[in-house]
């Protein structure tokens, strides 16, 4: 589906029109360019766009099929970029992923989006209001989209930081919680984020270094900024992952400590019952000569004896921390 | 065994003939080449082929002996590639491996296959129907075979993703499962895949970079695509491996939690029996003066007392989550 | 807020004045420079400073927003440095973080500080008393601030060394301590320190290598010294982290050993009660012919028998180390 | 001790003679060379050889003292190589190590061997029958020896693969085995192999790259082949080590699972005894009015009741998988 | 404190004198040099030496303050080296550390030592008796001292190998040992050694590569030898560390296995008591009609029954390995 298509000149949107053939024909100025945005295009749609803008078949194939790795490839003077998009679904505490592929030549940008999240419409609107960035041409569009995507990485990472904090609280609470499943899920989501972030670092570094002709000299600091954000996301993810591993070990330690505490309490509780049982057994013996048995207060004496022994054990265990 | 042998010219199959001597003699055009496919050849077969095409003895030795490492080596203007092939056997949830060795000169390709899976016949048919790729000559054949093999890596990896998902479900189910053996087997298979994928990355990178004369300039993007698939396979394997390690730890944690739960239930159950036993012991004492013993309803009273105590403990344990 | 602002010439403070426009106008000598220090400036304050000194908008944005990664970036002949500051809060055994951003051109330094700790006032005073370092111009200011910040890293690391020593003592004491939460917190703080230290290494290395024009040749050994301190901080943090991991494992082992000891003690204690109970049960049997029952000293005999059996078991368990 | 000493010319052994002075004097042709093989030489023997062939004192010292690291060093146009030799002692399932040091100049090879295994005699015989390799001169001798040593690495690794398979079977058997000691020993042996293999990779890579003048251009593919075998050994060792770690964790998990199973069985067994004991206690109470006590079949009734309760519990536990 | 000071010429000690000013004035020959050895000098002492030999203030500061990182720095044509010294204190099975700093110019060496161990006196004596090494001038002194220090690293590592062997024996003995504290301490000491060894590798590599003018061409093989010893020390430490981690895991496994064994023994022991108690309970019941109670040998029968049951259980448990 063609979401939007427009001609840009001197840092401004000149004309929006889904007839990209006509728009491209009009893009005759040195800095003119067309930006066509597609969302999950059909084979036919992309084939036609590919023909008009001369896109390389391998890149087109990658753009249509989802589940690609983030990457940047040059085909002649055209650059092809694949990004993973991430967003956090609050209801399910889950990270979801989508994909954006972009083709940028000297006079056009084709963006292809897969998945629900991270629509590019607002990115385009924001870009259209910034003459400085839009003035960088297709390189500016690349920057605007990548910057938007990477900012969302940072949002997702911030949510995960909150999740890790919650797990941490849960692990070290005195409640008997079973946090292993939640830690596992979170580790899995960190792996998801890592799969989006890590392979993107090299493409962004190349854009910042100026390996790519489409990106003008003065646009490079912008990509350095993006590279920096990516590095921050990657470092935070690594550090969260390490923390989760430690939290997991701590969880195991807590279980062990609780197990030990439980065992001591159980055995102390058993002692409170077993020793009086021995006393009862003694006074249940059938010896002919057992003076206590004839005492008027023999029975209350035995009960009090049991009570005292139990109380004494209780005090002993309390003092030694077993109860 | 010679599986197939043909002369290719201008991106088309010209003539199939097992007499490779004759075919090679006819391959006089600049872009002509012969592709001979062998399956577990005898010493004599390979020796004759080696003589006709001038293959280096060390490479021939490697091609005949299975269990080589994936690699690419240049002998003069000839290139020698070894690949591990992988396929997933559904019945046994197992990954099996085979091997393909290829010699590519400017006018010939010799492919040698070991093991049952990954026959090359369909790869050859697919290639013969693609003039574009076949037009790249021996480099195109290299691409077609490596691409086919790497696509099968991705298939195997997808199956392993499913296996990991199953283990995950099993680990976090409330059933008392013993998943350690299955996790171990899966880790072993991931190691197998890694042994196929990782060493292949450098050869493919060299083919994509144009280190190898046999691969024409315009064929390089195809190898970059393969390199990308390899990277994806490697990343997925690494991430599955890390997930399995976490799943394993979670499995250990689950066992500990269950052990603790069991212990608490056991001790609670014991308490339900031991306290009434004490009461019975008390009324089994032989004191002369025990008023209850003479009561008409002394016996039912004792039974009810036992029942009440047991019920009280039951309620207490239920409330505190011990039962 | 403008904290301090002054003109420096020939290694000495010439004039302090918050009117930085006027000061910059006066800085006409080859080695003259202005140093303006800001603390959490408002958008307007930084915007005005940025205009006067011609700071790049991306760098200004980074300087205003906290939570940046340590980094060094060059914009033309200007260099922009971001540092994390660390300090140790004794009361809470916690590491806190702040941030300093610095812009250094050939004739000015703008420093922007976030957070409570690590004020730069004393660094400025120390610098003003050192003609040698101040004579290096803006590069000298960079050095003085970074050196100060890195020295505080080393102080924080020293405090953490003490904390790790305490945990170590606690883990291997015979007390039943639950050290996992504390180890976790410490690991988290080490991660905080690492996030400040590691990304700073590359910027300092670049300053030491002379990549940055603002740093004169003869100032480089000073940055090599800082790089060395950073390396020491990083190595100590890594080594503490590894020690904590080992301490954690040792903590787990201690819990296991204690659990085993407790279990043996419990079972030994139980034996001391259960065996006499069996004896009491035997003499509670109702056989017509039980000679002991008729003995005059049958009852004391039974009690002594119970006592001897218990004492015998006690001695046995003591000897075998079970009690 | 001088094991063998001979003059080689044009790929053939010309003359064997322990008088290496004389032999060297005769080695006047461009491709002539002397190969002298020593086994644990005395100080005097090696000193004399060193003088005749002009060996560097540091290298000589390394050759005499065992326990060196595998390495390659150039002294002028002479190359000095140290190798660790490995062999597997079946009786003790152990890996043993020795050492070979080699000096190679343009017209001589001095090999010095330590330890019992890996004699070089058969390597020399094999080499003498291969004119192609021997024709490469001292470089060919280097190749023949290193190839022989590395092939033995692969043999040792194959034995270790078998050992790991055995441990794997043992860990996942239902027998109660204590595999930790065996896993430890195997990890130790893998470390031994790694210490031989890893440092050798760089020297062999240098020989394959042609850094060393003694190795002629056409001999390099042979060293690339050795490098490949080394890589295979290293990868297998790494992968075995990772598998052993997983097997170890699985072993721990098995112990935990068994512990849990045992605990459940024990508690179930206890319940089968404790509940009848409670019944016996009840009928041992001394109430005046206990109708059952007067029943003619009261005693059998009580016994049957106990039996039924025990059987009921047994069935319950069987059904719930506790027994 | 000035420990020794002398002038060296042509590989020989010419004159010892603590008046280093005078000595330096006499060192006019091309290869003359002065070596002054200091031990924990006062500020004044080092300041005077620094003035005489023109030492850089930053280096002097590092030399006076202990706890520096091993490093090599060049100031003009002077080189400054910091080394950590290690020695093993047998009584306490502990590794202690000291420090040596050295300044080497073309005509002088200043060595500054901190800590008790590793005196340099014997190194100087050994050096003075070796004309070859002393003939390399200040570079020779550097070599002699570094070689001495690194040889002591190897001694320390050898002691640690012994310690690891002892722990290994202890872990796998059948004794109930608590080895975690000892493993922890040893890991800590390995970290100490690593902190001395690892950062020294790069300086020694630079000396071996000839980056440093003070080291003449023909002295480089000596530093390559030192680099080799360092690599050996580093590899051994890494391998010991990995072994200790495995030993630790094995220790945990042993505790678990013992815990399981203990639990089985305890429960078996309990069964031997609990089942006879049930029998006693049965014969303590008060039924009117219990034939056994009237038997003449009823009592011995009951005792024998108890004994038989206990013996039967014992045999059963023995057979199934529970006792």
UniProtKB/TrEMBL annotation, chains A, B, C, D, E:
It comes from the Bacteria. It is found in: Cell membrane; Membrane. It is a multi-pass membrane protein. InterPro entries: CorA_cytoplasmic_dom (IPR045861), CorA_TM1_TM2 (IPR045863), Mg/Co-transport_prot_CorA (IPR004488), MgTranspt_CorA/ZnTranspt_ZntB (IPR002523). GO terms for cellular component: plasma membrane. NCBIfam families: corA. Its main location: membrane. Belongs to the CorA metal ion transporter (MIT) (TC 1.A.35) family. Keywords: Cell membrane, Ion transport, Magnesium, Membrane, Transmembrane, Transmembrane helix, Transport. GO terms for molecular function: cobalt ion binding; cobalt ion transmembrane transporter activity; magnesium ion binding; magnesium ion transmembrane transporter activity. The keyword Ion transport applies. Gene3D superfamilies: CorA soluble domain-like, Magnesium transport protein CorA, transmembrane region. Mediates influx of magnesium ions. Alternates between open and closed states. Activated by low cytoplasmic Mg(2+) levels. Inactive when cytoplasmic Mg(2+) levels are high. It catalyses: Mg(2+)(in) = Mg(2+)(out). This is Magnesium transport protein CorA.
């Amino acid at each position: 589906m063609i979401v939007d298509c427009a001609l840009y000149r001197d840092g401004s949107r000149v004309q929006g029109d889904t007839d990209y053939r006509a728009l491209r024909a009009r893009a005759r100025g040195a800095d003119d360019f067309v930006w066509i945005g597609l969302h999950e295009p059909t084979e036919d749609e992309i084939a036609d766009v590919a023909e008009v803008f001369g896109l390389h078949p391998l890149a087109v194939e990658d753009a249509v099929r989802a589940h690609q790795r983030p990457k940047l490839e040059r085909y002649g003077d055209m650059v092809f970029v694949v990004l993973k998009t991430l967003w956090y679904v609050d209801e399910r505490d889950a990270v979801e992923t989508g994909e954006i592929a972009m083709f940028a030549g000297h006079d056009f940008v084709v963006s292809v989006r897969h998945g629900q999240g991270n629509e590019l419409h607002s990115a385009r609107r924001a870009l259209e209001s910034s003459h400085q960035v839009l003035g960088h041409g297709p390189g500016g569009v690349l920057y605007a989209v990548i910057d938007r995507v990477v900012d969302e990485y940072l949002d997702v990472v911030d949510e995960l930081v909150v999740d890790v904090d919650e797990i941490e609280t849960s692990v070290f609470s005195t409640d008997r919680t079973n946090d292993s499943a939640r830690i596992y899920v979170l580790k899995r989501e960190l792996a998801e984020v890592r799969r989006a972030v890590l392979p993107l670092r090299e493409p962004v570094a190349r854009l910042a270094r100026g390996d790519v002709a489409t990106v003008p000299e003065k646009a490079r600091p912008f990509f350095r900024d993006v590279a920096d954000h990516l590095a921050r996301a990657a470092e935070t993810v690594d550090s969260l992952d390490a923390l989760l591993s430690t939290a997991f070990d701590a969880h195991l330690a807590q279980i062990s400590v609780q197990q030990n505490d439980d065992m001591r309490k159980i055995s102390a509780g058993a002692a409170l019952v077993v020793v009086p049982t021995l006393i009862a057994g003694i006074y249940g013996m059938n010896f002919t000569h057992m003076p206590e048995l004839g005492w008027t207060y023999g029975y209350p004496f035995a009960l009090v004896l049991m009570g005292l022994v139990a109380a004494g054990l209780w005090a002993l265990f309390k003092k030694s921390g077993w109860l």
